[in-house]
Amino acid sequence: MQKTALVCGAGGFIGGHLVKKLKNEGYWVRGVDLKRPDFSETAADDFVVGDLRDQILCQNVLDRPFDEVYQLAADMGGAGYIFTGEHDADVMHNSAQINLNMAYYGNKAGIKKIFYSSSACMYPERNQLEPENPNLSEDSAYPAAPDSEYGWEKLFSERLYLSYNRNYGLDVRIARFHNIFGPEGTWRGGKEKAPAAMCRKVAEAKDGDSIEIWGDGEQTRSFMYIDECLEGVRRLMDSPDFRGPVNIGSDEMVSINQLAKMIMEFENKKLELKHIEGPLGVRGRNSDNRLIHEKLGWRPNAPLKDGLKKTYDWINQQIKNNP
Fold first, then answer.
1. How many CB atoms are located within 10 Å of the residue 13 CB?
2. What is the span of the domain harbouring residue 132?
3. Is there a domain that residue 291 lies in?
4. Cis (ω within 30 of 0) for the bond into 323?
5. What percent of the chain has pLDDT over 70?
6. Together in a domain, 152 and 258
7. Are residues 193 and 113 in the same domain?
């Protein structure tokens, strides 16, 4: 019998790619989001445009005991959205409301299994003060002290889903994503993340120009290409008894300055890095992949440069198509 899946946040970057992957694996897929995907037609068999903060909508889309539910929907963005403090109330309220609805009505609908996309932003800020040596093992999450309200909401929702597992037997899987990037992601407008923003800046610049980088550019991050993210998600969902939370991210750590220079090499551009004030987030962040390797026998290993090149080419084409 054909498996059924519901993808919440199917109009977004990761959700849109996940729908395609599930369809390729033979699933019947329903997508739901406030909007349809921005850059391509959805591959979903059924796509509902609606607000998952609405309890009635949640009941309507959960009209069957889906084999798998993927809860990716959230109010989110890059550092320019998350770390200014201007969107904290909306981020916490909107995302928490979605998760409260999905846990409650998903359980009532008898769904077989639900995946929740948490974030590395839920890790304590104190463990990410050194750019060269951040501590992001899964067991370092407590005592809790995320650096943003976005991170606090993610931590709350992890506990929400795990409590539904303990009290009601809801089969949950939780992954902490680390900076997922790739084609068809947001690349301008204020919600884009560092790889897309840097690809755009380099693509738009001419030799001898300068591009702006927030802070001194020595803050470190790891970035994972979308295909590997989805591979990790599917392996976690197929695991018979490992629920997580588990990191899904690359452990290839680079500074933002290094990221910019790596992207410049794609067209041999010589650009000056102009460091300016701006929201920075934590000083260092990198995925610790020991637990995922232990539990799932797999870890991401694709070189950052390969995914960046694909993303740069796609964004470059978007710029040419939308000058």
1. 24
2. 4-180+224-248
3. no
4. no
5. 95
6. no
7. no
**Residues 116, 169 within the same domain:** yes
pLDDT at 77 over 80: no
CB 236 within 8 A of CB 224: no
Type of residue found at 196: A
Q: Out of 150, 164, 225, 312, which one is annotated catalytic?
A: 150
**Per-residue tokens: 24:** 């390729």
From the list 246, 251, 297, 256, the residue with the least C-alpha distance to 276 is 256
Which has the closest alpha carbon to 219: 270, 244, 255? 255
Q: Rounded to whole angstroms, how far apart are CA atoms 211 and 194?
A: 13
The per-residue pLDDT of the chain, averaged, comes to 91
Distance CA 39, CA 236 (A): 28
* CA-wise closest residue to 222 among 280, 289, 286, 296: 286
Task: Give the amino acid at 54.
Answer: D
**Residue 287 covered by a domain:** no
Give yes or no: residues 40 and 159 share one domain.
yes
Round to whole Å and give the CA distance between 111 and 63: 10
Nearest one of 304, 19, 31, 20 to 180, comparing CA atoms: 304
116: annotated active-site residue: no
215 and 229 co-located in one domain? no
Task: Tell me which residue of 74, 72, 120, 84 sits closest to 221, measured CA to CA.
Answer: 120
Cα separation, 55 vs 311, in Å, equals: 37
Give the pTM.
0.91
Please give the sequence-ordered ranges of beta strands (E in DSSP) within 73-229, or none if there are none. Answer: 114-119, 172-177, 180-181, 210-214, 220-222, 224-225
